[in-house]
Design a protein that fits this description.
The chain is mainly beta. It has five helices and 29 strands. It is globular and about 65 Å long.
Length: about 400
């Protein structure tokens, strides 16, 4: 049973109704969702149909629980259900930040209109931080939509900004807030994002030059032209960590310890083991699914598993490995297929993947010949196998072969 740890925030709770009233009465008119007629709305983790898709997310604060039950204050993005009137967004979506942020999945060639509404920081009404969305690793042709505060607009509290993207290149990316990036990323404003290649949509029974036959429904990490990045199942493996002292200082209006930042809660997809293998959303004290994304990997024997790995830690270099007994094949890095300019295959097999902050990889596990059972994906660094002082936690999850 998780401790609710209510005592640490009761001194601030009395200001929440006042803030909500101010938000509802004043700047609600600044919330503006922009989505072209005929476009389709997409949900987190699902690629929509059609050439033009829309999504509405929020930027704000919230609470969640760490692997040892400690309640942690955070900043992140949340998802607005399609159809919710703009005038109700501020009142309905405060304190509904999720970690990781909602996953965005697109198809190559799709156009995305992404509206981000800054719902404010309910627990810190003394702050008026703007927020932005930066698509990390994406070659954005328009600086105005890059999310960098210098060339791009940012959404102030109670206002919205709509980003436009043309998903020209497949691969694994991530997105984050680029306003006061070290602080806002440490606090949790990070989400998964990937683009599915056009090769997925080839006609049934298309034969590649090397003889590989594309079957309708096949999935690939990239437009490889030879089926080398084919996979059966895909899973996000987003590596990060929280420094509880930094998060608590933000909640309790204390100077933020940037120089002393040290993550004590290493996580995969916003959870430390054993929460990583819990298939259910983790609810916060208000019953809200603040951690909706687990990290349990499963497949049938013989299938290929694509791991979309990203390290978005603001403090640490992570190394991961598996107990599968088969190597990991790295086929992409930085949302680029590992090929030379002349087409030479530069993919490689390894038993250990080293990831620095800001790096993102596409890794394929081939389970052919692997006996059924439960295996582990974990870090080789023992200090990251803990939830603060609780041992046997942190960067570890299960790989279940059925």
């Amino acid at each position: 049973m998780r401790s609710k740890a209510r005592g640490k925030w009761t001194c601030l709770v009395s200001i929440v109704p006042i803030l909500l009233l101010l938000l509802a009465a004043g700047p609600a008119r600044a919330v503006l969702t922009q989505c072209p007629p005929g476009a389709t709305w997409i949900s987190p983790g699902q690629a929509g149909t059609g050439n033009v898709v829309c999504m509405h997310i929020t930027g704000g604060d919230g609470f969640t629980y760490m692997g040892d039950g400690y309640e942690q204050y955070l900043l992140s993005f949340g998802h607005v259900t399609p159809g919710v009137p703009d005038a109700q967004v501020l009142a309905n979506y405060t304190l509904k930040a999720t970690f990781p942020a909602p996953t965005i999945v697109l198809k190559e060639g799709q156009e995305l209109y992404l509206t981000m509404t800054n719902v404010g920081m309910t627990m810190r009404p003394d702050l008026f931080d703007p927020h932005s969305v930066h698509w990390h690793g994406f070659k954005n042709a328009a600086p105005i939509f890059d999310g960098l505060p210098e060339p791009s607009p940012t959404a102030n509290m109670g206002a919205s900004f709509t980003y436009y993207y043309k998903a020209r290149h497949p691969g694994t990316f991530f997105y984050h807030c680029h306003v006061e990036a070290a602080e806002h990323m440490q606090m949790g404003m990070i989400g998964n994002l990937w683009v599915l290649p056009a090769q997925n949509e080839l006609p049934d029974s298309t034969v590649f030059p090397n003889g590989f036959i594309h079957i309708q429904g096949n999935k690939y990490a990239y437009n490889d032209g030879d089926g080398s990045t084919y996979y059966d199942r895909e899973f996000a493996v987003q590596l990060t960590g929280f420094d509880p002292a930094f998060h608590d200082a933000s909640l309790f209006v204390q100077p933020l310890p940037f120089a002393a930042m040290e993550d004590k809660y290493p996580m995969i997809n916003g959870r430390g083991y054993p929460d990583t293998i819990n298939p259910n959303p983790i609810l916060n004290r208000d019953g809200f699914a603040a951690q909706p994304m687990h990290a349990r990997i499963s497949a049938n024997a013989g299938e290929k598993i694509l791991l979309r790995v990203s390290n978005i830690s603001t403090t640490d270099f992570f190394t991961i490995t598996t107990t599968l007994g088969v190597p990991m094949k790295v086929v992409g890095n930085g949302a680029q297929i590992l090929r030379s300019p002349t087409g030479q295959d530069l993919s490689y097999e390894t038993f250990i993947l080293n990831t620095a902050g800001g790096e993102h990889y596409d890794v394929i596990l081939n389970t052919a010949g692997v006996p059924q059972g439960t295996y582990f994906l974990y870090t080789t660094d023992l200090k990251f196998l803990s939830n603060n002082q609780q041992e046997r936690g942190g960067l570890m999850t299960e790989i279940v072969i059925n």
